[in-house]
Specification:
alpha+beta, three-stranded antiparallel beta sheet, repeat, Ankyrin_rpt, Ankyrin_rpt-contain_sf
């Protein structure tokens, strides 16, 4: 039976700052009480919203219920926040005997159990710091979690101990006071708690005992006492960490020496089969040397076959492990430590690995990627510079036939690869040209990344060795003679595609190229032609598809296309997005006209590669098919690989589903068969409202997806029953899908007509101008932000963990994301939204710049182009517990939100102006603006842990720690954010 603690020492040296000591009365409070005595009302009215230097108002400083009721009548703001983001709920919780007052405040403010200040502190933190036991008991009755940690991972009980309020221990019975005391480092307090019946074997919700807390904070004297009480030194917590691993993770050398002296096994396997040495590699040499001396295995591998060398972040760690004879072992994906250092931008470790001359700069993983491939694809420019100085090849091809130069997504990276001064500044020796060694044995065959001219036996039996010219040959699955546009421009000379070495050994002499193959510049052979879209037609302007013509991009490149628009083509690879002249080559006469087809005429078709085929999946080039990128975009392509396409513009590099869109066969009728109307004709009847029982279909009835690859899409999971709209005489109302734009092949289609909103929407609103910060994950590419989704910091960290770095889209960061942007957003709600008691509307999803749901058009027609929000765990998505409390997701509609980036034009932007403007007024087309307000690189998050360690675990406590790390980085650079306005969207207020 535990006894009450009544005689504990009060020598803790920690200070407190939240709340106020129970019983203290501020000067403002005393002045307020004086005002209530006679002539006070007028003065009280003047002071009700006055703030002191800490941003506190009278409502923050008074615990009397009667006085607060009077302040409420005088217009006091019960949601006002101090400079530290504290609500009256927080500060009053730190005043004595205020439970009745807290009850009143809770009626007019946020949830008393979940409200946080800017430091992540709850009301319980304020009450505990002030020793207000009665308030703590009331808070617990209201559902407050007395074990919740703030952004610095402090428990309310730790603040109570720091303030000397040891009498609160009974209030926290069952809330692991021994753990809080161990973290404080006060041995006397720990001893007294053990005497009072608190067991050193008791585990918290993370399956951790108090000794974990002591070792993480290097409280060796506390750990020694707990060990003397037989506390386990080898117990694993829910994250698979032992006390030894906890000490190593936080680089606590004194704690580690204590554990080694206690003969704790340093080779103990953690949950993912890793060891403490894997964690130590992310830190300095001191911890590694200590573990090695204690018998750690430097070549031990985890479940993914990664050794400690894979986790090194600095030169000291690399040198320590190599000095202990660590090997360059490949992971399950064939990634060597050099690959990992390159893709994560660990420049110091990269230099040390190369300087050791124990690895190869162009070593390939099982996908044929060199470290330079991975560094370039991840946007790690400093790492790429290091590799180039050590003679890495920028032209080596991986198994997809891509060289590093083709993976560059930013101008900065292109400049790095194009800068000859960066190459081979080191004495590379044999680092570059030694035979390939991946698994420790020399390979005698040619991979897809090596010149196979002198070794034509391909390692991959499905490939063959094809010659480009007399000097270069590569193992490929197939080869088309002529120019290959995926070659770097300076190397775009014709491929002969001569097959080399069909026998096991290469022939002594090779046959001359066939005379019918196209040469770089001579006249084409009689009757020859150039295939469309992917072969240079500069030397042979006759197109094989007579519906296409040879259009010039510049003096070197021309391609057979159905049509050509001068200027930048967004479907070109980003690094080659230079203007097309669209000069017609091969003479002015057009191809011979075809005979007029018999009635009925053929349906219209969609040109390949550049025009959205979602509404018309009939491709003009019969060798292509209409493949889906997402709910907004589909293109006619020769082939499609699901996943990210690096040739998409940077801001639209989202996954392709590669579902096929096929024409729907019209239902039979009783009349004579006839072809359906062209898809671009204007419907004769008003479009129908989508069925509430199934997902919304495209507005046209000519295409359907077959078959879907998945049943749900993250951002469009929840379907909605739209509420009825008032009818509009003489005007056809659009459906929730976007209005159809004119295609290039159908000039008869009309441009969208601007919607005329009701009068309240056209006028500035009387709403409050809100200014706060949103966050967005992005690659190194720079572009204007509109028609996007963003989040608060909790929401963005959930997105990063759930999608970007989850591994769903392969290793590394999805979309090439490298940083978290901080956006200063100013917004003002429209009057119809305010009339419903909301500042935010429906949070919609954007795919390729197009709103795909839910209910985009209805939302904007009724409420203007509003900023939408939803709380994580609430409708529309995600509707499950994300374990990121307080997370919010936003939508920011810009011009032409009904169309994808392929289909936006001036007419659409005029008809659908969006809500972005310079100074928000609350009118339907002027609801928000933003300015860039800083950024943090993802690599900055991993200062004290590897990427894998940082994102490990998905409990609320672990995730709050991740958010706290990100928040501290932003605060160190830019100061604390002001409070985020509550996400006040209520589904019931819109749909009833």
């Amino acid at each position: 039976m535990r006894r009450s603690v009544t005689h504990l020492p009060k020598d803790l040296d920690r200070t407190i700052d939240p709340g106020k000591r129970a019983g203290q009365t501020s000067k403002a409070n005393e002045q307020t009480h004086r005002f209530r005595g006679g002539l006070a009302p007028a003065l009280l009215q003047q002071l009700v919203l006055t703030e002191n230097q800490r941003g506190e108002q009278l409502v923050h400083l008074n615990s009397g219920r009667q006085l607060l009721e009077e302040l409420l009548l005088l217009g006091a703001n019960f949601s006002a926040r101090t400079a530290l983001g504290a609500l009256p709920l927080h500060t009053v919780a730190g005043l004595s005997d205020a439970s009745q007052t807290l009850e009143l405040l809770a009626r007019y403010s946020e949830d008393v159990a979940s409200a946080r200040d800017s430091r992540g502190r709850f009301c319980a933190h304020y009450a505990a710091a002030a020793g207000a036991g009665g308030n703590l008991r009331w808070l617990r009755e209201q559902g407050a979690d007395l074990r919740a940690r703030d952004y610095e991972l402090l428990l309310p009980l730790e603040l109570a101990f720091a303030g000397g309020h040891f009498d609160l221990v009974p209030v926290f019975a069952g809330d692991f006071p021994l753990e809080a005391a161990a973290g404080s480092g006060n041995v006397s307090l720990v001893q007294q708690l053990v005497l009072d019946g608190y067991s050193p074997h008791e585990v918290d919700e993370r399956a951790r005992t108090a000794i974990f807390e002591a070792l993480e904070k290097d409280r060796v004297d506390v750990a020694q006492f707990l060990a003397s009480q037989n506390a386990s030194l080898t117990l694993l917590d829910v994250s698979g960490l032992s006390p030894l691993a906890a000490a190593v993770r936080f680089q606590r050398s004194a704690s580690l020496e204590f554990l080694v002296a206690q003969n704790v096994p340093v080779t103990q396997r953690l949950a993912n089969a890793s060891t403490a040495l894997h964690l130590a590699a992310a830190g300095g040499r001191e911890i590694i040397d200590l573990l090695v001396r204690a018998g750690a295995d430097v070549n031990a591998v985890d479940m993914l076959n990664r050794s400690a060398l894979h986790f090194c972040t600095n030169a000291g760690a690399v040198e320590a492990l190599l000095a202990a004879n660590a090997s360059h072992l490949p992971s399950l994906r064939g990634l060597l430590p050099l690959h990992v250092a390159a893709v994560e931008g660990r420049v110091e470790a990269l230099e040390a690995l190369l300087a050791s001359r124990t690895t190869q700069v162009d070593a390939v993983d099982f996908s044929g990627n060199t470290p330079l491939h991975l560094a370039v694809a991840a946007g790690q420019a400093p790492a790429a510079q290091v590799l180039l100085r050590w003679c890495a090849s920028a032209l080596t091809l991986n198994q997809d036939g891509q060289a590093p130069v083709q993976l560059a997504r930013t101008v900065q990276m292109q400049d790095v690869l194009d800068q000859p001064a960066e190459r081979c500044q080191c004495d590379c020796g044999s680092l570059r040209f030694d035979p390939l060694m991946v698994t420790g044995t020399w390979q005698s065959c040619s991979t897809t990344v090596r010149n196979c001219m002198n070794s034509p036996t391909c390692c991959n039996p499905t490939t063959k060795c094809y010659a480009k010219d007399e000097a270069v040959a590569v193992c490929l699955h197939s080869c088309a003679p002529g120019i290959h546009l995926n070659d770097p421009p300076q190397y775009q000379t014709p491929w002969t595609c001569r097959l080399i070495g069909s026998a096991p050994s290469p022939p002594a002499s090779l046959p001359a190229p066939a005379p019918s193959l196209p040469a770089p510049s001579p006249s084409p052979a009689p009757g020859s032609c150039t295939p469309s879209y992917h072969v240079n037609c500069m030397s042979n302007t006759k197109c094989c598809d007579e519906r296409t013509r040879c259009y010039a991009k510049d003096a070197k490149v021309a391609v057979c296309l159905h049509s050509c628009t001068p200027g930048i083509h967004l479907n070109d690879p980003p690094q080659w997005q230079t203007p097309w002249t669209c000069d017609l080559l091969g003479g002015s006469p057009a191809p011979s006209p075809r005979p007029t087809p018999p009635s009925p005429p053929p349906p219209t078709c969609t040109p390949s590669y550049s025009v959205n085929c979602m509404s018309n999946p009939v491709c003009c080039d019969p060798s292509t098919k209409c493949y889906v990128k997402d709910p907004a975009v589909a293109l006619c392509l020769h082939s499609c690989t699901p996943g990210i396409n690096p040739n998409d513009p940077p801001q639209w590099q989202t996954p392709w589903s590669c579902d096929l869109v096929r024409p729907v066969t019209p239902a039979p009728t009783t009349t004579a068969p006839a072809l359906p109307e062209p898809t671009t004709s204007t419907p004769a009847t008003e479009p129908t409202t989508p069925s509430p029982t199934k997902p919304t279909e495209p507005t046209t009835t000519t295409a359907q997806l077959t078959p879907p690859t998945s049943t749900t899409e993250p951002t469009t999971t929840a379907q909605l029953t739209p509420r009825p709209k008032p009818s509009t005489t003489g005007t056809s109302q659009p459906t929730t899908a976007a209005p159809t734009r004119p295609a290039t092949t159908a000039p008869t289609t009309q441009a969208p007509t601007p919607s005329i909103p009701s009068d309240p929407l056209t006028q500035p609103s009387d709403g409050k101008l809100l200014e706060f910060y949103m966050y967005r994950a992005q690659s190194d590419a720079e572009y204007t932000l509109e028609n996007i989704n963003a989040g608060n910091l909790e929401g963005m960290m959930w997105y990063l963990q759930n999608e970007v770095l989850s591994g769903v889209y392969g290793p590394g960061a999805k979309f090439g994301i490298t940083r978290i942007l901080r956006l200063k957003v100013t917004m003002k709600a429209t009057q119809p939204l305010l009339d419903k008691g909301m500042n935010f509307g429906i949070r919609v999803a954007f795919d390729s710049g197009k709103c795909t749901g839910p209910d985009c058009e209805m939302d904007w027609q009724d409420f203007g182009y509003n900023v939408g929000c939803n709380k994580l765990g609430d409708w529309p998505f995600p509707i499950y517990d994300t374990h990121f409390p307080g997370g919010i997701w936003y939508s920011l509609p810009g011009p032409c939100p009904s169309q994808s980036y392929l289909d936006k034009d001036g007419a659409c932007q005029q008809a659908e102006p969006g809500g972005k403007c310079e100074s928000p007024t609350g009118a339907f087309d002027c609801t928000w603006s933003y300015e860039s307000a800083g950024q943090v690189q993802l690599t900055d998050l991993y200062e004290n842990a590897t990427e894998e360690e940082f994102w490990a675990g998905n409990s609320t406590e672990v995730n709050l720690r991740k958010v706290a790390v990100a928040r501290s980085l932003f605060q160190a650079k830019y100061g604390a954010d002001p409070p985020v306005p509550p996400c006040d969207f209520k589904r019931s207020k819109v749909y009833g």
